[in-house]
Amino acid sequence: MEEPSSGAAKPRVAITYCTQCRWLLRAAWMAQELLSTFGDDLGEVALIPGRGGAFLIAVDGATIWERVRDGGFPDVKALKQRVRDRIDPGRDLGHVDGATAADDEKDRA
């Protein structure tokens, strides 16, 4: 069942993962994290099987993370921040944007 259209297309996130490397669970977990955080603000999160060590994440066709270029896999904090920066730069991600304990220690010194 399709939702009524508001006229504005919602962003599409595509996660391409290597089937040879068995990265489906990693890709699915990241998709779940994005859907949990951004909910109805995303139009789709697609999992796209790939090969040859591929692991890349794109928002509306623009690559925001590529495993080889960016040096491995994103942590969830970095992933959510990059998605947020593409779809809603002013959005507060709560604890994801908060200071770390190490930052707090530096501030007290």
Automatic annotation (TrEMBL):
Coiled coil (UniProt feature): none
Q: Does the keyword Lyase apply?
A: no
Would the keyword Coiled coil be found if you checked this record's keyword annotation? no
Q: Entry's InterPro entries?
A: Selenoprotein_Rdx-typ, Thioredoxin-like_sf
Keywords assigned by UniProt, alphabetized: Redox-active center
Q: Where is this region: Disordered?
A: 88-109
Gene3D superfamilies, sorted: Glutaredoxin
Q: Which PANTHER family match?
A: SELENOPROTEIN DOMAIN PROTEIN (AFU_ORTHOLOGUE AFUA_1G05220) (PTHR36417)
Supply the name of the protein: Selenoprotein
